[in-house]
Amino acid sequence: MANQNSKLTSLRSYLVPHLSRDTCLGFLAGGGFALTLSNCSLAVHGLNTLVEPVRKFVLARCVPRTLIICAALGFTVWARRFLLHSPRCFGSPLKILNVTENPSSFPSLIRSANVELAPRLTNEDIAQAVILRGSQDSHRKVVKVGSNMVAKLRLDPEAAEAESMTFIRNHTTIPVPRVLNTYEEEGYRYILMEFVEGELLEKIWGKLSSSERSVILNELKDYICQMRQIKCPNGTPIGSITGGPAIDRRQLDSAKDGPFKSEADFNEWQLAQLHEETPLSRRDLFAALHRTDHEIVFSHGDLAFHNIIVREGHIAAIIDWEYSGWYPEHWDYCKTRSFLSGTDELYDCCKRIFEKQYYSEYFMDEWFTREVRHGGF
């Protein structure tokens, strides 16, 4: 018992400095504990055998109205809204509970006795890194650090890409780079992830044989099916997986707002992106064509050949999850077909990787792209 109390005291001493001022931490009888935040409360039970399992500490990091908590053991939770999963990127039986009253960064404090996060990058690390996307002076770029790590930097503290990558690694067999660390520094969101060897599918597609293409398309179809089987929890808004904004990625640029409590609200926001000179007749037409009864599923948001890494004839990784989250079921179809357009061959690819075709939604979406401020035509 003395040993257990000592470990609980050490754990409490570690956690308290990282909690926000309006957060209260208290250990309950039997080794469980409760965390109370400003606008929601959470109780965790089932940690009464915390003596040996402290080998994987229970760690938490709180910011106002947001909580992420890890535990080595199974537990029962009560909270207003949450996502519960066990990311493989932190190895073995860790669980992450994300209370998404407001979006929060992926916690850089999550550790276990067996897993240590990659250290933060120094200015020298970044200066010596190999640029994979962007430029040295750009506000968003992807660089290779050393031989086995990639860093993604962007001016967006709300970015939930790391959470999406971890969520997908846990819930599917989709190959996703393992997240090594993520943090915010001087306004930039950093995601450190493992480097995946291979070539981008868009660069080698023309060199592949028909049978090689079929293997890749069949794998991609399976991965898309797995994503679409992840249904949005009741009450979860349309937007990022952490309860953050929705992002509409199009040819020219992207727009971000929300999250949205319904597809009707989401559609209304999209209509607000139309050019001011768009005639009222077309505005009414777009509004009428927007359905509001689609199922909301997990979507990548930018699923195209430039975000698929291939190695030895198979998909080694799907990357660039920054536009992912909970979206209407046609979302990925429209985005993917928009990038895979121009030839019958590419159109056939879309037919093969999506079990359901959303012809009317795609027709409207392409027309819509020509009229919105962040479109591309």
UniProtKB/TrEMBL annotation:
GO terms for molecular function: kinase activity. Keywords: Kinase, Membrane, Transferase, Transmembrane, Transmembrane helix. Coiled coil: none annotated. It holds the Pfam family APH. Residues 159-333 form the Aminoglycoside phosphotransferase domain. The chain crosses the membrane at residues 25-46, 58-79. Gene3D superfamilies: 3.90.1200.10. It comes from the Eukaryota. InterPro entries: AGP_Transferase, Aminoglycoside_PTrfase, Kinase-like_dom_sf. SUPFAM superfamilies: Protein kinase-like (PK-like) (SSF56112). This is Kinase-like protein. It comes from Zopfia rhizophila CBS 207.26.
